[in-house]
Every structure is written in structure tokens, then in C-alpha cells.
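Q: Please design a sequence for this.
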């Protein structure tokens, strides 16, 4: 991994401190800042094919928010802890 990519990832993790990215998902301003400073507008979260939700792709700021909302719904339903 290049130093530039390493610095990028460290900065992104540092943005959320000890809470981590998952804990910050309720804070829209922080997710917006992550996209403004660290993430490309076309950033993607790809779910592996062998997962129950297999093969889904979440793109951009709206996709990331949808992904986190989906994860919360699964947790609330007791499907995922």
C-alpha cells in the first residue's frame, strides 16, 4: 500500500476517533466530512457474493447512508448483532 493511501486511511479512521466509522453513521455531518475530505464521490461498499445480502453494491454518499441504515434495520430485527 502506498504511503498516500495509508495516510488517507489513517485520516479517515482518525476522523471518527475511538468511536469508529460504524458508530459515526448516525452523525450525518461526519459522514459528509468523510466524503468531502477522504472519499471519492463514487466510493463503493461491496458486499461479498457469499454473504446473505450477497453481491450488493452501495455507491456514493447516499449509498453509504443506505448501507448503514440497512445494517441498523438488521440489528433492530435481531438478524445481526
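A: Design:
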Amino acid at each position: 500500500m502506498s504511503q498516500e493511501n495509508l495516510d488517507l486511511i489513517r485520516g479517515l479512521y482518525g476522523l471518527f476517533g475511538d468511536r469508529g466509522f460504524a458508530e459515526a453513521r448516525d452523525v450525518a455531518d461526519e459522514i459528509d466530512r468523510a466524503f468531502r475530505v477522504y472519499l471519492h464521490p463514487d466510493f463503493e461498499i461491496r458486499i461479498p457474493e457469499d454473504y446473505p445480502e450477497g453481491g450488493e453494491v452501495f455507491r456514493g454518499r447516499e449509498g453509504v447512508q443506505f448501507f448503514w441504515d440497512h445494517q441498523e434495520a438488521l440489528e433492530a430485527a435481531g438478524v445481526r448483532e
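Q: Thanks. Anything notable?
A: Residues 25 and 68 are 6 Å apart (CA to CA). The chain has a mean pLDDT of 79.
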